[in-house]
Amino acid sequence: MSNEWFIIANVLSNSGKTKSIIDKVLKKLNDEKIKHILNLTTNSGHEIDLVKKATKNGYNKILAIGGDGTVQKVVAGIVLQRSISLEKMVFALIPSGTGNDWAKSKNISSNLRGCVIALKSGKIKTQDVGVATIKSGYKTTTRYFVTYSGVGFDSFMLSKIDKYKWLGKLSYLACAIMNFFKFQNIAVKIMTSKAEIETNVFLLGVGICKFTGGGMQLIKNPIGNDGLLNITIAQEFSKFDVIRNFFNLFNGSIFKERKVLTLTDNKVKISAKNGDLVCHGDGEIFGAGKVDYSVIKKGLRYLS
Predict the structure, then answer these.
(1) 3-class SS at 13?
(2) Please, are residues 198 and 189 in contact by the beta-carbon 8 Å criterion?
(3) Are 102 and 129 in contact (CB under 8 A)?
(4) Interval 48-66: pLDDT, tens
(5) Alpha carbon distance 133, 140 (integer Å)
(6) What share of residues in the chain are helix, strand, coil (percent, to 5)?
(7) At residue 214, what are phi and psi to the nearest 5 degrees?
């Protein structure tokens, strides 16, 4: 296998701001004598094809430059490729996105120098990879996530986020404030190996990491590599409940709310009583239908 880092850089990440730091990254890697080959994405999803190309050519070390969307797609590529076993793949990140939730959750430095130190350390950690299987009629779609996936208000918010992206790190907060009055709770059925629940949800999240949505803390004490999904159900929220708990979504206090239920399991099935559920993952709309969640235990090896 190659000793070089196969770099995948998303020049459109963070509204195109990532493009300006690529030269700095390359200079730093050259100064530190870290071997690398640069590959630029040309469209959303190109990351998956680039990972497959890398592994077919013997590259097992993938370095991403971008945000959470880039991380999600590169990791999906790592899981989907069949040339090199997951136990031999290594992932690293230089964060340059809007939210950088995965990087925050894993204490990955936002400083280029800190990222290079991690690259040179070679200290590998492991994390589970979430799997969302979305079924609608005869169509089945499988997507992968590394931080958080769910249905409800956050999916509704993501469908409206583009007009707020110019606000940078404040875009998620601004979008949430401007749109929460427009959202109606969704009647759902939730099935795990331990429970069956029918309720009306404000949001229903399945996560592996602490942060999502530009800093929201919707997952309670995730371990991240134990093969278990952490499930958060905010149920029967009135508009007053939403206002009362709004900032608790960001400061980690939401779990003190009596209407918030937390569970852990390695599988969970979610369906709407009426219509399809819009499912999102790692800041991207995945699709709509019934959603089955599972997990690939320690499916990701990364440097931090």
Answers:
(1) coil
(2) yes
(3) no
(4) 999 999 999 999 999 999 9
(5) 7
(6) 30, 35, 30
(7) 70, 30
